[in-house]
Amino acid sequence: MNKNRVQVRIGGASYTIVTEDDEEYVENLALSVDSDIKAVCNANPSLSVTQAAVLVALDQADACKKATASSDNLRVQIKDYLEESARARMEVEVARREIERLNREISELREKLNRR
Predict the structure, then answer these.
(1) What predicted TM-score, i.e. pTM, was given to this entire model?
(2) Measuring CA to CA, which residue among 2, 9, 17 is closest to residue 35?
(3) How many CB atoms lie within 10 A of CB 13?
(4) In 1-116, alpha helices (H)
C-alpha cells in the first residue's frame, strides 16, 4: 500500500503522520483530538497542553475499550441468534418430515377405507 504523509496540528504543535489511511480521515482525527484538547484546556486553564492531551487520551482509550466490549458482546449475541436460528430450521425440517409421513399415512388409510 502507498504511505501518505499527512501534516496536522494538534495542541499547537505540528506533526507529520505517515499512514496508509486516507489523508482526509487522518486530518479529521487530528481535528477531533485538537478540539478535545482545547475543550479540556478551556475547562481547566491550569492544565498544560500535555496534561490535557493525557486526559483526552484516557477518555479516548476508555471509549475504545467500551466500544470493543460492546462489539464483542454483539458478536456473541449474533452467534447465539445464528445458533438458535439453525436449531429452529432443524426443528422445522423435522416437523416437515413428520407432516409428510403423516400425510402418507393418511393417504394409505384412505386407500384402505376405499377398498372396503
Answers:
(1) 0.70
(2) 9
(3) 10
(4) 23-43, 49-115
Mean pLDDT to the nearest integer, 24-50? 97
24 contacts 9 by C-beta, under 8 angstroms: no
DSSP code of residue 2? P
Give residue 110's pLDDT.
96
CA 9 → CA 31, 67, 73, 78, distances in Å? 8, 27, 36, 41
Phi and psi torsions of 68, nearest 5°: -65, -45
Cα pseudo-dihedral 85, 89, 95, 96, rounded to 10: 150
Helix or strand or coil: residue 33? helix
Distance between CA 39 and CA 33 in Å, rounded?
A: 10
